[in-house]
Amino acid sequence: MNPYEIARERFARWGVNTEDALKTLAATPVSLHCWQGDDVAGFENASGNAGSGCVATGNYPGKARNFAELSADLDMVASLIPGPLRLNLHASYATDNPGKADRDALTIAHFRSWLDWAKDRGWGIDFNPTCFGHPSAADGFTLSHRDHAVRDFWIAHCIACRRIAAEFGAALNNPVVTNIWIPDGTKDRPADRLGPRERLATSLDAIFAADLGAIASFNIDAVESKLFGIGVESYTVGSHEFYLGYAARKQVALCLDAGHFHPTESVADKISAVMLHVPRLLLHVSRGVRWDSDHVVMLDDPTREMLHEVVVGGFLPRTHVGLDFFDASINRIAAWVIGTRNTQKAILLGLLAPQSRLVAAENSRDASARLALFEDWRSLPWGAVWDEHCLRHDRAIDGTWLPAVQLYESTLLR
Ligand code: RNT
Ligand code: ZN
Fold first, then answer.
1. pTM, whole model, 2 decimals?
2. Among 66, 162, 191, 258, fewest CB within 10 Å belongs to which?
3. 23-351: CATH number
4. pLDDT tens digit string along 234-264?
């Protein structure tokens, strides 16, 4: 018997069907964030600075500078990832914008190259308004700005992005998640915590009220909360409570970013709570070290537990898995590959959980058996199931993909 067949039997004895797990994993796309390739710089200006609290640290060589480089890097990454991928684009990555249309005037035409690229590869696209790194966001406020004209600019940008998303979705026949994250907040204690939140709610209402016409169903709106950012330590307008309430009330998707909570909070525990109230979940799989540092995702317990809860809660059909890390201190392709494969492994582990046994132990009030099951299950040969997934998708198994990245670095990136 080969290692996979042995693993299949071992899991079967735990009531787990590895073939079912592999089938579901093969049908679960991960949305690859374009911004890992260039430290969130975007294509708008040569200086390429994310600003507004998105801090990529490090100066490892090989940062992508344009569409040709970034798309080639993404192809390289895709050649090392088993299973379906999507492309997660930020509005600051417009490719076909010779007239330098500002963000409130962007259209699908400005993203033609990405659309063709995704179509060629059979990928879906996800989209993000870029409400940072722009003169109109210079004082740290966008949709909650006290100045009506500034708010209107960002409202127009977000509506433009929803339109572009619906058009991407219609062109690819694959709905697009449009995720709104804004940096708004203050460094020091604000006098008025309510006003900006009222303005943010009103701005969001205006954004979501825009009619996308016949293709509206190809756009899925999501909102992303945050705890704090560098320079925005005392007050974040779009806090978790704000967006949880807003998403529940308006029935839009809620984005939970793994780095956007107090370090001891469990994002895993939030999932079953919020999914009772919001229609869909967007995960930003990330890893905060002491703060929202967006380190490359490890196969650590918080990541495993988060995806475990998505799977065992039955939420996979209502969940969109996106990545949100950026490390400029190591090879960026390696960063993408490591973080993406780890995210897929966390999904697989959730799919391989002996849930019916665990629940049976819990229902018979046998907490010792439950803990024993949880812990003994950890040493089951799940790596052989992962290898099988890689082989079935014609991708390198663990321990064999890095030389390809090193060769790409020495011949191309440098
Ligand atoms: C920022 C948010 C947001 C960004 C991306 C680039 O804290 O996590 O998702 O990382 O939009
Ligand atoms: Zn995020």
1. 0.97
2. 191
3. 3.20.20.150
4. 999 999 999 999 999 999 999 999 999 999 9
